Amino acid sequence: GAQDSCSHRCGELLGTCSCQVTCQSLGICCPDYKEFCLQISPYSGSLMGGKDFLIENTAFNASSVLTCRFKKKINTSGYVATDGKAHCISPLLYETGFIPFEVSTDAGLTFPYSGTWLSVHHSKVSDGEKCTLVNETKWQYYGTPNTDGNLTLTWAHQALAVTSINIEVWGYQETGDSYSENWLAEWKYLYTLAKEIPNTGNFSFIPVPAKGNYSTWDFGILRITPSNYCDGQSNIPSIWSSEHALAWHLGKDFRNDPNAWATAKCIEWDRKEEKLPSFMEEIIDCPCTLAQARADTGRFHTDYGCDIEKGSVCTYHPGAVHCVRAVQASPRYAAGQQCCYDSTGTQILTRDSTGGSTPDRGHDWGSPPFMKPPRIPGFSHWLYDVISFYYCCLWSDNCHFYMKKRPSSDCRTYRPPRAASAFGDPHFVTFDGLNFTFKGQGEYTLVESDLTSLRVQGRTQQVHFPNGTGAQVTGLSAVAMRENNSDVIEVRYSEDLNLEVLLNQKVVNFSEQSWMDLKGLFLHSTADQNITVMFSSGSGVEIRGSGGFLTLTVLLPENFMNHTQGLFGVMNGNIEDEYTFRNKTTMSVHASPQQLFEFGANWAVENGTSLFTYDTEFLLNNFFYGEKHNASFLPVFFPYEDPADPLIKEMVLLCDSDPFCRFDVLTTSSLHVGISTRQSHQSHKLLVENLKPDMSLLLVISCGWLDHPTNGRKNGTAYLLGSTIHFICNQGYELIGSKERICQVTGAWSGDTPSCIP
């Protein structure tokens, strides 16, 4: 019979062949799979659009009229280059993430070709793709005292293959009623700054106030386009600048008296804020210490504006060495949290210092479902939290207005997450801290939760000795995960031992983007391939390759208490019920290794609930058609220590008293495996230590901020257990109440509120 076609069917499994991404490695693709299912380069670009991308795998007829359609509704023009390769132009989008697109060759009648485009936050595109505002501060302070003269714009001229260009000014606004259905976001073309100038990559000018009411737009962006397009034409090849405060084009009223103009704007912003609902109640509290903030990777991520790994250049937060942002926006108002810390690891509060962290009405990264205020990535945040900072703090001296509306959160309601880990030839440390070894071969449920349908599954494969023969132990070779109806992420070692990350069965390429906004989760990969998955519930999964196995850590917030099961146990603070079977029966924590083997086997996954991708003959035969728990594979339960073996001496030196390290050296004859097991074990212990800095108290106690008395001052800005604050009155005043107050175990300050009387 005739073979099926992938026209209009990419991603589907058809009767006679497949149009799914796994078809290539399995050799079952429909003959026209490569024609209709598109591969593109580059695969990502700014949500502002205007990026030209190449369709790599399909040759089109040079006379075809190409239309590229994104999300079934936004059309942009494509073209076929002289080499026969097709190109599309990405559109302006008000969202980030993978966006489906289709291509038509018959002027938009049918769209049989399809692929996906990754839209990213405007700050996440490479510098070469943007035009540069030379000395950006000068642009954003232009017209304030001592800031005048020429402004210069540079760009990579080869990014637009034309001889003359236009430079346009665009403004951003949000109209309608706040937090209502008619609240809308819009990027709007304002005017053309320079017309038909040579595409040299450099333009200098002396800015003048914009004509008419354009000068009232104070937040916007520049766009460079080929000059053969109409002014303001949408979705054409473009190079955008970074978004910025448009001080340089503001009106005469700003230039004559910037301080008065900005003060009026600041007071107007303050009045508007009064009328808006408070978002402070629903944002997550900050971690109490820098160590906690860096350990709670499921809920907090480095704020790139103040990063300890990049030399702590903290322009907006003097005195801070590191800041983090809450990964998820708050549920109702989509607000963001920021937390900054000083060199002692103590949180800096705005009430003590201008370097303190400020929460955001609009989360900088936006939040699903995007599209409407206050969820537009980057730009909603600019409108409520950044341009207002210019009004009140940078262009005028009214920062107290801003700090009053954006005070730092302290850590009184912060509760650290619990961590569980698996590493080596699998050793497990449960959420409640029980250690055990389970060396089954198969696919197992590590943790699942009825709270959010979170599922994390692990696959173990036989380990081989340095000489290539099989050892009687296994190691973690793949981990797959999902929460509710999120995307499915799998991290695995491929058959040639490369670390791969799969998104819904397709290998992810991190060459252009190390951070991805996906459905129900964020995905991040560091340069040395540490993978972090941050689910919308705040649960986090960290995976890295070490010694040929995967090391895995799962972090769960406190609301998962009593809602977990699987090999990582029941998270409830009680280790006695860690070995709980599917049918809810439990086994003693003193069970033998053989009994533990039965416990592990009980948590084997089934094909119906497996999240893994079976895209090779080996995986299909061994894990899909084969048993999920290989009952015939019997591991070593008690490894033998031969005193005459020279390896033993080195092992003792290397492992010290770490039992997992010793076990792995003995069962694999590899010191390398032992080292990485020991490192993984140590980092788990350190993580747990960092999350609970005071082991005698399961949480860090904060007594909250204390003010200085009127007509007096205070010494001390630490508010955690054991901290002391001293109070002194100004000359001519006498102190009534406590001279010093200490933060107590109860979370209350000792003594009485001091006051200074004449």
TrEMBL record:
Q: Which UniProt keywords apply?
A: Disulfide bond, Membrane, Sushi, Transmembrane, Transmembrane helix
Domain SMB, by residue range, is 2-41
Q: What's in the GO CC field?
A: membrane
Name where it mostly resides: membrane
Instruction: Report the residue ranges that make up the VWFD domain in this protein.
Output: 418-611
Which InterPro entries does the UniProt entry name for this protein?
Answer: AMOP_dom, C8-3_MUC4, Epithelial_Barrier/Signaling, Ig-like_fold, Somatomedin_B-like_dom_sf, Somatomedin_B_dom, Sushi/SCR/CCP_sf, Sushi_SCR_CCP_dom
Signal peptide coordinates: none
| Alphabetical list of CDD domains matching this protein | CCP (cd00033)
What Pfam families does its record include?
Answer: AMOP, C8-3_MUC4, Somatomedin_B, Sushi, VWD
Show where the AMOP domain sits: 258-406
Q: Could you tell me which Gene3D superfamilies the record lists for this protein? A: 4.10.410.20, Complement Module, domain 1, Immunoglobulins
Give the Sushi domain ranges: 701-758
The record's disulfide annotation reads: C729-C756
| SUPFAM superfamilies, A to Z | Complement control module/SCR domain (SSF57535), Somatomedin B domain (SSF90188)
Q: Which PROSITE patterns match?
A: AMOP (PS50856), SMB_1 (PS00524), SMB_2 (PS50958), SUSHI (PS50923), VWFD (PS51233)
Q: Where in the cell is it found?
A: Membrane
Q: Which PANTHER family match?
A: MUCIN 4-RELATED (PTHR13802), SUSHI DOMAIN-CONTAINING PROTEIN 2 (PTHR13802:SF63)
> What is this protein identified as?
Sushi domain-containing protein 2
Please name the source species.
Aptenodytes forsteri
